[in-house]
Here is the input.
Amino acid sequence: MDEVALVGIDLGKNVFHLHGQDRAGLQVFRKKVARARLFDFCNGLPRCTIAMEACGGAHFMARELIAMGHQVKLISPRFVRPFVKNNKNDFVDAEAICEAASRPSMRFVCPKDESQQLLAALHCLRQSLMQERIRAGNQIHAFLLEFGICLPRTSNMSKQLLTVLADQPLPAPTLQLFDRLREHFVYLQTQIASLDKELFAQMASSEIAQKLLTIPGVGPVTASALVCEMGDGSQFASGHDFAAWLGLVPRQRSTGGKATLVGTGRGAGKPIRTLLILCARSYMVSAHNRSGPLAEWVRSLMSRRPSNVVACALANKLARIAWAIVRHKMQFEALPPAGRNIRPERLEALGASLGNK
Here is the structure.
């Protein structure tokens, strides 16, 4: 085992498949290990590089292996798929992970710490509860229409429902049904508010999150999502790469030296992209009352482009600003101090890099 330089692990629930290679890329071992024995086996290996797909449980495994002294590389599964040979199986997957990790141009995922994983779990739970709240509200409206009652759209649906039902001569079983629906809706609202408080508490102890809150239009929910997914920003070479990962830059279908852009792509960070676009729309509403290079650029763009295009462009800019703040430990400044020269690497955080294009 002394010649092992690279190990690929195909993650599973109870059983893991390992493929080991030496520095020349030749196979050293193939082994199937149970979860209970995996860490003991890896602890007995010489200090080497261990590669895994960035899927369920990968970040916990990465933290444990890093503590043992190994170098861990997490790879997106879609980048591993092209290296899988015919007759796919678990050992072939582990070998493909080794092949992908040995590519010098491969892009890797930065392992998350426990606080980032907690924020990710809170965001996933909050998103699912919000979707369920929307379903519950739509169900209440649909059931009321079946009884000839049109409930107006309001932010306080539970109170409005009580007011409307009090004036309607409905049978007792029907009133009990709507009361159960109202209680479920109120429960969802309470849970979402509780998760928001927990997110705000996590944000209060994060210095990076406090700096992200200085970006105009960015609130605690968006800032916590950025902290969760971006980490220290080292996995992205530039703000453009981060925006491209989010799907906020045009996709290309270029050939023959002719550039063809076909609209923005889906990206990997769809929830964050949605939040950034909402932040951009919030900024656009009050852009006429703001000052600085960013506000001037937004007003200029709004005068000649549709609102959806402006929102995506501003979300792209906000993503770049967020990356610059996290990566370079900056703080957003709406206006540069008078008489002070701005360094080129700070243009992104000051909102001037895209405005000059």
Q: What stands out?
A: The radius of gyration is 26 Å. Residues 6-101 form a domain with the Nucleotidyltransferase; domain 5 fold (CATH 3.30.420.40). The longest strand covers residues 27-34. The chain has a mean pLDDT of 85.
